[in-house]
Design a protein that fits this description.
Keywords: Disulfide bond, Membrane, Oxidoreductase, Quinone, Redox-active center, Transmembrane, Transmembrane helix. With 145 residues, the chain is mainly α. 74% of the residues lie in helices and 3% in strands. A hairpin with a 2-residue loop joins strand 1 and strand 2.
Length: 145
């Protein structure tokens, strides 16, 4: 288990890392030419699929929004007044992000038939953020708080 303060720092750092990954993907989605993909051509295949946007919004733009919200919530959580509300929002946004990541990874595996390295990395970061949130929740519960 980790302390709430340490968890919040981890969430903030991971959010910034995720923001960089999502911003890079957003940039790559909006230029012509192949995406630099360490694992081959999966990133270009995913970008060319109909699933590269959701409700008309570029998937990397949704990632930017997700990580920006998580970073802002971690800053808010570091202050005393809205701490409880910020933690509840972190849980809600974190679960939503991981659920969307599961959906997108499912699409990569079973519909598109290709994996984007950067998309999978973003999914892993979102899972780590949720894990940091959940570990604090368990510690507080175990201590009776």
């Amino acid at each position: 288990m980790i302390s709430s303060q340490k968890s919040n720092r981890i969430i903030f750092i991971l959010s910034l890392l995720g923001l960089l990954v999502a911003a890079y993907l957003f940039y790559e989605y909006n230029i012509t030419g192949p995406i630099f993909c360490p694992t081959g051509q999966g990133c270009d295949i995913v970008r060319a699929s109909t699933y590269s946007s959701f409700l008309g919004i570029s998937t990397p733009l949704l990632g930017i929004f997700f990580y920006l919200v998580m970073a802002i919530l971690s800053v808010i959580h570091s202050h005393d007044l809205p701490k409880r509300l910020a933690r509840k929002m972190q849980v809600l946004v974190g679960v939503s992000g991981v659920a969307f990541g599961i959906y997108l990874t499912y699409l990569e595996a079973f519909v598109i038939g290709a994996f984007c390295f950067w998309c999978v990395l973003s999914f892993i970061i979102s899972v780590l953020i949720l894990l940091a949130i959940v570990l604090v929740g368990r510690k507080k519960h175990d201590n009776g708080n």
